[in-house]
Amino acid sequence: MSVQDHLVSALVRDEPRVLTRITSLFGRRGYNIGSLSVGSTETPGVSRMTFVVRGERGIVEQAMRQLEKLHDVLKIIDHSEEKFVDRELVLVKVAVDRETRLEVRQMAEDFRARIVDAGRQALTFEVTGDEGKITAFIEQMRPFGILETMRTGRVALIRGSNADIASHVYAGQTQALERMSEPLQPRETGTWEGDVG
């Protein structure tokens, strides 16, 4: 089986140490996370993690099954199952001088890059796009001298409305759609309404 990158999202409870528990699961089993992005969602108390896992298909499916067993994970979305839109942001600081400044700026315009900081010897660009665009921009800037880069990692959403999303996208027995239909409410015991088992 071929080794490739797989884009996966997880909806998780926004609680302390959730990120540590999830990344530890990958680390203990030898899975490599290529990139990881975490942010809030439209539902209070729920965050979305999007990560790229490199490995064989069977390895990734095993990782997803392990994630589903975690109390903090509400839903797993395998983006290989459906069409999706993804974006990444990068900041790139490029060395410039009198001779190269104009050329660098013109080349950056082709990528719709935005200058966020300008100095005598460097320009810092912000670029948003899919992985291919980000990589291409970095490679175009490399001959001029890249001083620093910072990539956010990929974020993704399935195309269309939630009603359009096929049920097989939500693998496992998490019953996430039902559990997410109402806001999570803390119990006096410190657990959450809607917990299973």
What does this protein look like?
A hairpin with a 5-residue loop joins β2 (32-40) and β3. The longest helix is centred in the N-terminal third of the chain and has 12 residues, at 57-68. The chain has five helices and nine strands; from the N terminus they run βαββαββαββαββα. Helix content is 24%, strand content 36%. Strands 5, 6, 7, 8 and 9 form a five-stranded antiparallel beta sheet that branches. Strands 2-3-1-4 form a four-stranded antiparallel beta sheet. It is α+β, with helices and mostly antiparallel strands and 197 residues long. Mean pLDDT is 81; it is low at 165-197. The protein is elongated and about 60 Å long. The chain has helices spanning 18-28, 57-68, 101-110, 131-141, 176-179; strands at residues 4-13, 32-40, 46-55, 73-78, 84-95, 114-118, 122-129, 146-151, 155-158. It has two domains: 4-82 and 160-179, ACT domain (Alpha-Beta Plaits); 85-151, Alpha-Beta Plaits (2-Layer Sandwich). This is Acetolactate synthase small subunit. Belongs to the acetolactate synthase small subunit family.
